[in-house]
Amino acid sequence: MKAFALIVGMLLVTLSACNKEKAPETPPPAPTEPAKAPEAPKPAEPAAAPAAPAPVAAAPAGDAPEFIKKSIDHLKAVNALVKDNMGDCGKAVAAVEKYMEEHKADLEAINKASQEAMTKMSDEDKAKMAQQAMGLMMPVMQELTEVQTAFSQKCQKEVAKLSEAMGKFSAKTK
Kindly report the CA angle at 92 between 145 and 139, in degrees rounded to 5? Predict the structure, then answer.
């Protein structure tokens, strides 16, 4: 959903640094000599599945930049407003619009801090920050996705309005 993408836009920028890192590929298994025929027939064993590359571990989120923690808190709050008001789609949009207006100064400060950090950080620091953001986001992603999907399905006429309201928290805000 476009609104979801806008509100987590700055997180996606930081998370993109993780995509640049690839887990090392596992070498193919060394060829083995054919085994001698067993004296008694044994049942066939299933072939072992190839080893998957290890996932990139999220860095401890405790020392994540404050703007990441605050933006996730705002994201959770907006998501809760949508979820709590889903029975009345217009009310959900109005609640988000009100929240965005009431928190405008903080949201602008978060965007400014994010933009400044991204221009000053080394690639290594950006990757660390992306891992921290991922560590903070992973526990809430399922609920965020469920709520946004439910709203999109139930409130089709209001999706554009919600996108516009949530878009006030985009990187374009100055």
Answer: 25
User: What is each CA distance from 87 to 90, 134, 139, in whole angstroms?
Assistant: 9, 31, 25
C-alpha 156: how far from its chain's center?
Answer: 24
**Residue given tokens 């959903």 in the structure block:** 1
Q: Cβ of 47: how many Cβ atoms within 10 Å?
A: 6
pLDDT digits (tens, 9 = 90+) for 21-36: 333 444 445 555 555 5
Q: Where are the alpha helices (DSSP H) in the chain?
A: 2-7, 9-20, 66-84, 89-102, 104-120, 123-154, 159-166
Per the CB < 8 A criterion, the answer to whether 103 and 74 are in contact is yes
pLDDT tens digits, 101-113: 999 999 999 999 9
Q: Cα(first)–Cα(last) distance of the chain, in Å?
A: 23
Phi-psi region of 173 (alpha: psi -120 to 50; beta: other; left: phi over 0): beta
| Packed helices 104-120 and 9-20: angle between N→C axes, nearest 10 degrees | 20
